[in-house]
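To: structure subgroup
Subject: Chain for Friday's discussion

All,

I'm putting the inputs and outputs inline so they're searchable in the archive.
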Amino acid sequence: MTEISVSAARAPEPTERRDGVLGIDLLRLFAAIAVMVFHLGFKSFSDPGSEVLALTGQEPGWPGGWPWTWWGWVGVQIFFVISGLVIGFSAMSARATAGRFLRKRILRLVPAVLIAACVALAVEITIFGTPVTQAGIAWIRTVLFFPTGPWIMGQFWTLGIEVFFYALVLIFIVVKRTALLPMVGLALILLCGLYWVVRSLGDGSDPLGFGRGTQLILLQHGIYFGIGILLSDTARRGWQWWHGVGIALGCAIAGVQIRQAADGEAGAAGLAGLWPIAFGFFLLAIGLVIVALHWNDRIVARLGASAGTVRMAGLMTYPLYLLHNHTGKPTMAWAIDLGAGPVLATGLAMAVTVLVSLWVAARLEPALRTRMDAAWDKLASKRSV
């Protein structure tokens, strides 16, 4: 969910390029839309606690378009791979310093969260009927990036995992050992593999009993960041045999995790047995990452004047991920109350969400980031005096 600047394979210094990997922007858009479609097109109708059902007085059921929507949760796993890829490039750059890395992460994450959290707070209180105190506490926990919930946006659970991954990488930047990050990626894959083997041999529950803590120490999802780091290293130094082995092992472990995730996300609908579909989309995403990295120049040339549009679509995905529940669900409830069917209501909700996210990415987020950037410079100048 952050900017990538990288050339084709074997580029000596990927951060020197400023045109970006447009294929990754497209994949990021796919992942964000997949998550949105899952939440709006599947969970909104099937989850007994759905705000849409509460607002419209309907009973839970499986919408007619479920074959196209139920697997969209795998977009989160794809996002984690992209994050490992992006952070791998950023950290292994010759220009990487702890201060620069920390500044870029804060300026990328915080503005959109502040905007989306304020939108969510207003919607929770005025439309979803959440008590003001409860919503206010959740809002505070969200804008402070508190690692455990409740948060004002349910999908915020992934941000805590991202932050802990950033902290791990920051340690290697501080001690000037970023050359070891590919080994860190392999270690994440192996440790997560051990965790998921033990978990799958048991009753399926967390064998450590840490709950959220197991997620934060990257034992549940570290495989995805590890795959991303290895993919970034292939673009920097070219493919080596251990890259292929590590990525293949990571994908195999991902299959185990995705299979179990399907039970929680779609088991109540009797769809858990279709987990290979979600896994297939994940593998397709990995293939597209490889194509995007190693044929970026051709993709840029083919897109031509459309490259700017693709870039904006990539920037839109972070606000889209944060906002879709609190813009889409009220729109769906409004449309259903007016007589629209599930498909039309979902389509309208997604259209509204995309437009709002574009506005945030093009106007609000850059303006807030510019102010934060200036404040950072001002604070730095005072410290240097």
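Points worth raising on Friday:
The two ends are 35 Å apart (CA to CA).
The longest helix spans residues 342-384.

D.
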